[in-house]
Design brief:
The longest helix is centred in the last third of the chain and has 13 residues. This protein has 4 helices and 6 strands, in the order H-E-E-H-H-E-E-E-H-E. A hairpin with a 2-residue loop joins strand 3 and strand 4.
């Protein structure tokens, strides 16, 4: 029997953090998210919000950088997928930051 293409196991296979792989790496990544954001973006991690939506999960990440307070929004169908998406976007330099309109202090 073939496994479906979209499984939590497939979502996490690529995650490697400081030599650790998969689930162990995901735990380390989330536990040290402030460092991961700093290392990959040069910004200071200031917080996040994780919300369950009808179509999946939304992760809002906040950080402060040269342009002040910034925010990015990520959506994925599963909780594992949203964390993996954050990892991919950070390590491939694909995060699209926007000015955080609710935090003008920066």
């Amino acid at each position: 029997m073939k496994r479906p293409l979209h499984t939590e196991e497939n979502e996490i296979n690529e995650v490697v953090v400081r030599g650790r792989k998969r689930w162990d790496a995901l735990g380390l990544f989330t536990a040290e998210l402030d460092k991961e954001v700093g290392w990959t973006t040069g910004m200071v991690f200031t917080g996040l919000t994780l919300s369950k939506k009808a179509e999946g999960w939304m992760l809002v990440v906040r950080a402060t950088g040269k342009k002040g307070a910034m925010v990015t929004f990520l959506n994925a169908p599963t909780l594992t997928a949203v964390w993996r998406l954050l990892w991919v976007m950070l390590y491939k330099g694909r995060i699209k930051w926007k000015v955080d309109q609710f935090n003008r202090k920066g």
